[in-house]
Design a protein that fits this description.
With 299 residues, this protein is of the alpha/beta class. Helices cover 38% and strands 14% of the residues. The chain contains 12 helices and 7 strands. Strand 1, helix 2 and strand 2 form a beta-alpha-beta unit. Helix 6 packs across helix 7, helix 6 crosses helix 9 and helix 10 packs parallel to helix 11. It starts with 9 loop residues before the first helix and ends with a strand. 40% of the residues are buried.
Length: 299
């Protein structure tokens, strides 16, 4: 399990669920199973339902009668809860980060550290990969991806470089992409720039922002009053969505008020400010450095 992925903010996130031993909980991102195993350790007669669309996680599944695994994206949360006869839950945890397994496995194509095909599919049965994106999106579509999901100030120039390169040859692997971007790679900051490029492509390929919104919206229906929502995010785009949702129960500013003029609130934030990993945890696991944990309780 630790070889697959070292869970981030493990104690803090599971503590944030305020687990009832007989409660029903959801881990929307099973991965290496670190958070799931910790949740199970607090349950007696309760149940844990875990989601993950990646078949690589299957060897990590615990043999536990209290555990139900769903090999699908968490956007199908409500449907699969109903399929298993569950109408409401006591808490949900989402660790939104890409696992160490994805970054370290060259053939999955999530990291520019490997000279490999640029795949980036979380669900390997999905038909659309990063290679398809890079070789099919037009200038405006590519620009939008790099501007919105990579937050690149020169997004249009990056997109133009990709289109110019692919007019001569397809972009299939890391080497091709880096060569295509050679004229825009900033000196002494190549790694941080490529990290943003890869983040943007990965988010688009896996519809990460759309699916996150879909899952969060469903928590309004499946969480019991007093149920906990616990989310670990790793970049500002995710965290902004989660923060706004906890504040408003929606993804835009909500102007609805009750009869007394007080702003209606679906969630109560449990943490006064965002929780980040300790220096000790970051030393143990450098990939935890960007993690932000938010905890809320449904009213």
């Amino acid at each position: 399990m630790t070889d697959y992925h070292q869970p981030v903010l493990l104690k803090e996130s599971v503590h944030g669920l305020d687990i009832k031993p007989d409660g029903i909980y959801v881990d929307t991102t099973f991965g290496g199973g670190g958070h799931s195993r910790e949740i199970l350790s607090h349950l007696t007669t309760g149940k844990l339902i875990a989601f993950d669309q990646d078949k690589d996680v299957l060897p990590n599944l615990p043999d536990d009668e209290r555990f139900i695994f769903v090999q699908h994206n968490f956007r199908f949360l409500k449907n699969f809860l109903r399929y298993h006869g569950i109408e409401s839950i006591d808490g949900l945890l989402a660790d939104l980060g890409v696992s160490s397994h994805h970054f370290d496995t060259a053939q999955r194509g999530f990291s520019f550290r490997h000279d490999s095909a640029i795949d980036m599919r979380m669900n390997q049965d999905s038909g659309f990969s990063a290679v398809d994106l890079l070789n099919s999106y037009d200038l405006n579509h590519l620009t939008k991806v790099f501007r919105e999901y990579g937050e690149l100030s020169n997004a249009r120039r990056v997109a133009h470089c990709i289109i110019t390169y692919r007019e001569k040859d397809a972009i299939d692997n890391t080497r091709d992409l880096i060569e295509a971007l050679s004229s825009v790679l900033p000196r002494h900051a190549e790694h941080s720039f490529l990290a943003k490029v890869y983040q943007a492509i990965r988010i688009e390929v896996n519809h990460e922002m759309d699916y996150l919104r879909q899952m969060l919206e469903q928590t309004l229906q499946v969480l019991k009053p007093g149920g906990r929502l616990v989310v670990i995010s790793y970049h500002s785009l995710e965290d902004r969505i989660v923060k706004t949702f906890i504040k408003n129960g929606a993804f835009e500013e909500d102007t609805s008020f009750d009869l007394y003029g007080n702003k209606k609130s679906v969630f109560k934030s449990i943490t006064r400010k965002v929780i980040i990993p300790s220096e000790e945890e970051i030393k143990r696991n450098n990939r935890a450095r960007s993690a932000k944990l938010r905890i809320a309780e449904k009213n």
